[in-house]
Amino acid sequence: MKKIFALVITLGLVLSMAACNKATTPGPSTTSPSPTLKTPTTTSPTMTAPTSPAKTSPSPSKTSPSASTATPSKSAQAGSYKDGTYSAKGDAWENGQEEAMVTVKNGKISDVSLKRLTKDGKAEVDYALFDGKVHNGKQYPNLKEFKETMAKNMVQKQSAQVDTIASATTTTKNWTIAAQRALDKAKK
Asked: Mind naming one GO cellular-component term on file for this protein (predicted)?
């Protein structure tokens, strides 16, 4: 029984070390090692009785912070843009097309302007109709308020990836797409 227990502990240690080595080896994705590192380290206290786990325990704790700091790519992007004003459009759809104009100063997003364009894509819609009220029996979203809120959130978050708004899902999603396309043009 002791031999089986020792074999199980040894096998667990080998798997734990393999997971640590795999997690510390640079790969195409830096987002997944963080959760997988936590699993082996939480099971390792039972393996601290043998002599070698002390050597492997510091390794995961040292790699976990670097993996977690590498994960938020959006924060890494902040400050990594070329100064200037960049514009891009979202995908055209049955009600028009969305456009974003992003201004970058000192490598950071300083201003965002969002627009809803007409179906032909040549002019901005009349926001008097998009006031959150019912017109001719149809409920319209408050796009004027939504575009200002989303633009403010993008500047605060330093990212195009902000929450969409349920009553204008397609429009607000396309604003994030347009803003991201503009930011892609601004990347260093």
From this structure: membrane
Residue 29 gets which letter from DSSP? -
CA-based max dimension of the chain = 81
DSSP H stretches of helix in 44-186: 53-56, 58-70, 73-77, 143-157, 169-186
Distance CA 20, CA 103 (A): 42
pLDDT tens figures, 118-172:
998 889 998 988 999 999 999 999 999 999 999 999 999 999 999 999 989 999 9
* pLDDT tens digits, 7-16: 445 545 444 4
Whole-model pTM above 0.90?
A: no
How far is 166 from 183, CA to CA, in rounded Å? 24
Domains contained in the chain, CATH given: 2-71 (no CATH), 77-186 (3.90.1010.20)
Strands (E), 34-125: 84-89, 97-105, 108-117
**How many Cα atoms are found within 13 Å in the side-chain-facing hemisphere of 136?**
2
For residues 182 and 163, give the distance between their C-alpha atoms in angstroms, rounded to a whole number: 18
